[in-house]
Amino acid sequence: MEKSQDIHNQVSNCTMRDYIGGNQYILMFQDKEREFMVTHKVNIKPVSYFVGREQELKELRQRVEQGQKSILVSGMGGIGKTHICRKLFEEYSLKHKNKEMIPFEHIGYIEYNGDMGSSLVECLKYKEQEKAEQNLEAAWRELEYLASDGKLLLFVDNVNVSIRQDPGLKHLNSLPGAILLTSRRTSFSKEFEPYRIGFLTTEECKEIYENIRFEKRGQKVKEGEVSDLEYIIEHLAARHTLTVELLAHLAQTKDWTVKRLKEELEEKGFQLEYENEEEELINIQKSYEILYNLSELTEEEKNVLEAFSVFPYLPLSSEVCKEWLLPDIGEKEQEDIFKRLYRKGWLQEEQESYLLHPVFSQFIYEKCKPRLEKHKGLIEGCKKSLEIPENGVALECQKYIPFGESIAKKVGMEKELEQKNFLATLGYVLYYIGEYKKAEKWYKEVLGISEKLFGENRPDTASSYNNLAVAYKRQGEYEKAKVLYEKSLRIREEVLGENHPDTANSYNNLAGVYERQGEYEKAKVLYEKSLRIREEVLGENHPDTATSYNNLAGVYERQGEYKIALDYFFKSYKILILKFDFNYPYTQIVYENMKLTYTDWNPKGNFEEWLEGKMREVD
Q: What is the pLDDT of residue 128?
């Protein structure tokens, strides 16, 4: 059985002094480091068969250039909102490249992942901080600086929540500059002026169909088929852009004439219908079921689409798609299944990445209700991508948090061990980057699964109590944390014994709560118990022992015992500098703790000379 994750087995869980992570320590870019493109994905492009929309582009261009600050580009799903904004983004990018005059000094395109803060962390270029939990603040401060002169143009694509659900959207609106959001929502609040996107004309839909059907070779449908194509577009597809695209892919894949396509659709009873003036499709489930069947998807293709239906509407690189999804279908040397699904019209492709449109995603999810037994490779692959690497740099892992959260919500796992391990990893990376409230949510789920699978008096359950307590402690809910830490400690003392490393962790963690509450003597007793076990069981040069030295030093420092605190800080620093290096994040934390304590102890002394002398003693 896989050992339960206990986040206080990590050196990262030192009890850190309050001055670490204050605003004054946020590192910012120098002006010369900033570029015109302020987001990582600089080659945002509309589809190659983008047609029409000249009036919409003109009006949006006028609004942003005339000082309209916040615009909500809205419209029903699958009508082309994203491609319009991408086209405008591309226009300004090319104008800047060609040194044309534009009213913006910075431009960025953000793919919204359900939370504005984490979307910024993933997409915006900002200076990575020494502590991962400071990256969120660093991203916001970078955006605030970029927008401060009102010359920022920012696109935020596919916002799927209200402004009340995500306070980050309200904060975004408070910034100077031009903000364009795309959403299926018709309005957020009075802060965002809605701009409604309507349907393409029949002629424009015909052009899209021909571009896809004939692979942009300039061919046209035969004159005798024009009326049939118009009938399909107007009466069967209802000028719904995404559906027209899918029908074109279907005809291209099967090499059907327009007449054959019309016959197949009518025989199967395909016809989209809208609900009054709301422009919402009322029979999309039934209609897309027909297209799903007409596509004649293999079981492997269906499995891949099921997996995509539980993802957020964000691109996933081709390599990661292979790592996560191929183990569940066994494809290795066959034709690229993702390319195949793109050619069939189900997947979208951009910059060697794939994604599934929300309209398709909703339909496939409702049809298939994906479950664990068919997607164990996906669960394991995403879990590995969420694991913090040994160097402690979490930026790569953070990219996959929206995927992990969406998978956790949508894949039926029935409180299995795989679900527990997956959620524990998701909870830890959220904790690591400072998203304590989100971590708390998943740790509660993990605790419930642990109690169901193992009962209340097992080490796995003790770890679950511990990890939920960590999330409470980080949010200042010390009494809740204390109760859970005590439960964890009781189980570990009874089951593992007093001299087990996990028991030492529990002493350490409970001591941290007492320290936060100012009960330093109680904290000191528990820290010393933890240190004794770690020295005996793990050795004096183990990273966890370094944690104990650091934490015990913190208590002595708070009590004004600077000389004793310095000795313990140095013991911790010596272990970390020799085992890792100075660039290791927690080596730097202990270094800062030690430096400030030295200043308190000897205000006129030279810290670097003192440290150099101590290191010579080690040599």
A: 87
39 forms beta bridges with 124
Per the CB < 8 A criterion, the answer to whether 430 and 441 are in contact is no
Tens digit of pLDDT for each residue in 230-280?
Answer: 999 999 999 999 999 999 999 999 999 999 999 999 999 999 988 765 566
Q: Are 412 and 371 in contact (CB under 8 A)?
A: yes
Q: Provide the residue count of the chain.
A: 619
Interatomic CA distance for residues 545 and 566, integer angstroms: 16
Is the pTM higher than 0.90? The answer reads no
- Three-state secondary structure along 388-424? CCCCCCCHHHHCCHHHHHHHHHHCECCCCHHHHHHHH
Backbone angles phi, psi at 415, to 5 degrees: 50, 45
**Helix, strand, or coil here: 144?**
helix
CA angle, 183 then 367 then 198, to 5°: 30
Assign 38 to helix, strand or coil: coil
| Structure letter (DSSP) for residue 249 | H
Dist. CA 442–CA 528, nearest whole Å = 32
Alpha-carbon separation of residue 144 from 122, 139, 214, 365, 491 (angstroms)? 16, 9, 46, 38, 48
Q: What is the tens place of the pLDDT at every residue in 292-316?
A: 999 999 999 999 999 999 999 999 9
CA distance 14 to 545: 11
The answer to whether 492 touches 509, Cβ cutoff 8 Å, is no
**Torsion over CA: 500, 448, 402, 145 (sign):** negative
- What pLDDT score does 191 carry? 77
- To which H or E segment does residue 320 belong? helix 318-325
Beta-carbon contacts of residue 370 (< 8 Å; ≥ 6 apart): 306, 307, 309, 310, 410, 411, 412
Alpha helices in 517-606 (DSSP H): 520-537, 543-558, 562-579, 585-601
Q: How would you label 140-155 residue by residue, b for 16+ Cβ within 10 Å and e otherwise? A: bbbbebbbeeebbbbb
To the nearest 10°, report the CA torsion of 161, 175, 55, 245. -30
Nearest to 527 by CA among 18, 15, 19: 15
Q: Which helix (H) or strand (E) holds 582?
A: none
Which residue from 166, 8, 2 is spatially nearest to 484, judged by alpha carbons? 8
